[in-house]
Amino acid sequence: GADSQSLEEGGFNEEWFAGILESIVRDLNQYGVCVIDDFLGAERADHILNEVKALESHGALEAGQVVSRQVQDQARGMIRGDQIAWVTGGEPHCSCIGQLVTVVDSLVAKANKHQDAGMLANYNITWRTRAMVACYPGRDTHYVKHVDNPNGDGRCITAIYYLNRDWSEDDGGVLRIYPEGKDQVASIEPLFDRMLFFWSDRRNPHEVLPAKITSRYAITVWYLDQKERNEYLARLAHHQMTTTQPTHA
Ligand SMILES: COc1ccc2cc(-c3cnc(C(=O)NCC(=O)O)c(O)c3)ccc2c1
Ligand SMILES: [Mn+2]
Predict the structure, then answer these.
(1) Which residues contact residue 32 at a Cβ distance below 8 angstroms, ignoring those fewer than 6 apart?
(2) Where are the alpha helices (DSSP H) in 58-176?
(3) Bridge pairing between strands 206-211 and 125-128
(4) Angle 198-42-128 (CA atoms, 0-180°, nearest 5)?
(5) Of all atoms in ligand 1, which is nearest to the CA of residue 190?
(6) Mutate-to-test residue for ligand 1 from 143, 160, 171, 217, highest number of ligand atoms within 8 A of CB
(7) 109 phi and psi, to 5 degrees?
(8) 14 Cα to the center of ligand 1, angstroms
(9) Nearest-CA residue for atom 1 of ligand 1
């Protein structure tokens, strides 16, 4: 309700947490996507934005994440892709990013074990990646339609936190999700203090439309299902065994 402040300094309001948890469980089950606005409040969001800008100004963001062949061909001659840094949140001057990840960790863990978890109950989410701090440097940088986890690498939920103040339509950089088997498309503007969750697998092909303005900031964490991750690592180990079989004379 109006009287529940979103966050006390340092701690998190029980009511706020429970409300967000309900939205995540309900929307992921119903739409495979969950958007939460005014997630942490403007003050905390500002601290996180300042930490991201500091990373950028210190050259911590590296251009060019791995992209598949045809994308590189398509992108040749164009400015493409985001600049990224992998952050644990424990680095110096990254404590607010760390707090963000901690809150999202507890929300995802609680949602996974929620009594109405539904499809979420099929997972046992025990791991996650580090936080990928990303900046699309404007000048029409984009990300072609793709699936985050097309081949069962263990990632089950993509969590993206956006940090773009005063974002407007002609700034571009909208995230378009094409939920599998549905005819409606979700167009998600990368608004300041907006939190987004969606299934990482083939249920959610998505693309980032060309970003016009200078910098489009986002922080992404991928949550892993233990079983799928272990099976993936086993496949990887087996593959390495068979391909790098020691040759005996
Ligand atoms: C092997 O090393 C790497 C390192 C980083 C990688 C990052 C991505 C990636 C995937 N999705 C998105 C996205 O969908 N963003 C949506 C949005 O910003 O609104 C994005 O920005 C980046 C994919 C593969 C990678 C491989
Ligand atoms: Mn993606």
Answers:
(1) 179, 198, 199, 203, 204
(2) 69-75, 95-112
(3) unpaired
(4) 35
(5) 19
(6) 143
(7) -65, -45
(8) 32
(9) 66
Cα separations in angstroms, 23 against 20, 35, 177, 196, 197: 5, 9, 19, 11, 10
How would residue 82 be classed by pLDDT, with cut points 50, 70 and 90? Answer: confident
With b meaning 16 or more CB within 10 Å and e meaning fewer, what string describes 8-21? eeeebeeebbeebb
Token pair listed for 74: 């398509």
Query: Which range is least confidently modeled, 137-141, 185-189, 229-233?
Result: 137-141
Mean pLDDT of the chain: 88
Question: Counting atoms of ligand 1 from 1, which one is nearest the CA of 175?
Answer: 19
If one residue of 71, 82, 195, 221 were mutated to test the ligand 1 pocket, choosing by the most ligand atoms within 8 A of its CB, it would be 82
Q: Tell me if 96 sits within 8 A of 44, measured CB to CB.
A: yes
Q: What is the CA radius of gyration of the chain?
A: 19
Inter-residue contact 157 to 125 (CB < 8 Å) = yes
Token code pair at residue 36: 């939460």
Complex ipTM value: 0.97
